[in-house]
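Notes from the 1:1 (GR / supervisor)

We went over the backlog. Supervisor wanted to see one worked example end to end before approving the batch request, so GR pasted a single chain during the call. The sequence is below; no edits were made to it. Supervisor asked that the structure be written out right there so they could see what the output format looks like.
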Amino acid sequence: MEMTEHRTAPALNEILDLEKQVWMALVDGNASADRALLSADFLGVYPTGFANRDDHVGQFADAPTMAAFDLSDARLRVLTRDFVLLSYRADYLRPDATTREAMLVSSLWERRNDVWVNSFSQDTPVQKA
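Structure output shown during the call:
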């Protein structure tokens, strides 16, 4: 294993761009892009229960699951140079829906073999005021 001493922690925008790629996969119905961004041992914690990578990718079986999204109020907690926790608000519109929904999301990104992958995500629906 090669030592990479000069490796630095990622910037917020770098990880947020990766997160947006996951959302774009949902909009585009691109299961292979989604699979590539998630680790093999991915764990999702959702209001509907626990999900693994196959569950997450499996939602593309019929059609895209998102029509539009906006990510805001992002913050990055750097745990190590290779582990970061991204938290943000997602306002999104599902296909065939007329009103947007919102949730707070926390995603754990890990650098494995010099590639960033999403290994954990938890969604918390935002309560309507």
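Supervisor's comment: The first strand starts at residue 38 and ends at 46.
Batch request approved.
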